[in-house]
Amino acid sequence: MPSPMRLAVTHEGRSIIYIPSPEYAVASGRLEPAWLEVFYNPAMEFNRDVSVVAASALRRTGLLTRSGVAFDAHAGVGVRGVRYAVEAGYGKVIMNDINPKASMLAALNARANGLEPGSYMIFNRESNSLMFHLSRERPTPISLIDIDPYGSPAPFVDAALALSGKGTVVAMTATDLAVLEGGKARAAVRRYMLRSVSKTPVSKETGLRVLLGYVARVAAAHDKAVKPLLAYYADHYYRVYVAVERGARRSDSMLEENLGRLVYCSETGVALALSYAEDPASACGGSYVVAADPAWIGSLGDQAFLEAMLSIAVEAVWLGTRPRVEKLLNTLHGEAPLSTGSIYVSLTSVASKARANTPKRSKVVELLRSMGYRAVVTHFSGEGVRTDAPWSEVLEAVVKLGSSG
Question: Taking the mean position of all CA atoms in its chain, how far away is CA 53?
Fold first, then answer.
């Protein structure tokens, strides 16, 4: 008979969480989550804090038009599902994990946090099999589907979208950054069905737009459309939240308006999200590299949703990473209106062209705003800005601020 699992206790947000004892899963003073009997990564608390705020914002904004049921397809110890119930107020959570020990621990954590027996369901299934099964059985409609695998979410997107309905929000995490960003181009073509992908200075944004483009194309195969509410890069992963709508016409419009090519203009350091009707050579005025094709060229966030998240984050004093959550949301709120068309300018490239020192980007943003343009920093890069100013005006600002050095 197998020995019982030794447990430790931790806290996240307002939730108490039992986890496998980490004593045998530490290397060089650092926890290796994959070595635990049941997966739990404390470094992803920020990811889960953002998830709780997003789940709460869905309820507050009325975007949550369905049942108030959250489904965590890869639950591990059950921390995310429990927090959706305890902190985001979801009336029912479904937690699944292929590891039978995970199912037992998720049930323990549900009880430990006072969840009533009828308010949660726990499965020990392969997640695709379960999602397709639930989509055929037509149970209570699911409001929030959360896909957080170890690696790429690509193998689970089809099943998640099959399970989704009108008003469902699908959230997913991707940790295969080398593939999505063009570092492993052949794997990217296989996994995300790309025509081409290249590593460029805008690779962090490339990866996120490749992921969203793939989700959009899979949704279209189900006669569904998706709209990003929140999409960001942090630490070693991407995280996206998309609202699902049904209908072939919506799907057609989504593909026509939001799929195209991500292009990096080599001479100017500008990245462009271009429709297929636009000529990259003309748009760049010279040489260019196709960073990704196809890619999502539409907006990366919904401002009203981000505003609701910010309001909730300010109130959520119990969040362990609250200052970082607020900082990210403030940045994303500024970026959202400037995340189409000319999406990125590399100040390093502009300064090199001008033979000037690279100025602080905060100073460049301030100067461009004083000239009447919109300008913000981007969370994807420490030296990139988003702006609707012409490149010549950005060049002038960089020369003015950087030439003295």
Answer: 14
Q: Are strands 69-72 and 92-96 parallel, antiparallel or unpaired?
A: parallel
Helix ranges, 259-374 (H): 280-284, 303-315, 322-335, 347-354, 361-370
Q: Are 329 and 310 in contact (CB under 8 A)?
A: yes
With 0-12 / 13-18 / 19 or more C-beta atoms within 10 angstroms meaning exposed / middle / buried, residue 16 is middle
Position 100 confidence tier, pLDDT thresholds 50, 70, 90? very high
Q: Distances in Å between the alpha carbon of 339 and those of 76, 81, 174, 331, 377?
A: 34, 31, 20, 12, 11
DSSP 3: P
Which residues are 7's β-sheet partners?
20
Whether the per-residue pLDDT at 144 is higher than 80: the answer is: yes
- String of DSSP letters for 92-156: EEEEE-SSHHHHHHHHHHHHHTT--GGGEEEE-S-HHHHHHHHHHH--SPPSEEEE--SS-SHHH
Cα 297 to Cα 294: distance, rounded to the nearest angstrom: 9
DSSP annotation of 74: S
Residue with tokens 């094709």: 293
Contacts of 138 (CB under 8 A, 6+ apart): none
Query: Would strands 288-296 and 270-274 be described as parallel, antiparallel, or unpaired?
Result: unpaired
Tell me phi and psi for residue 239, to 5 degrees.
-140, 130
CB contact set of 225 (below 8 Å; sequence gap of 6+): 216, 219, 244, 245, 246, 247, 250, 251, 253, 254
**pLDDT grade, residue 3 (50/70/90)?**
low
SS3 196: strand
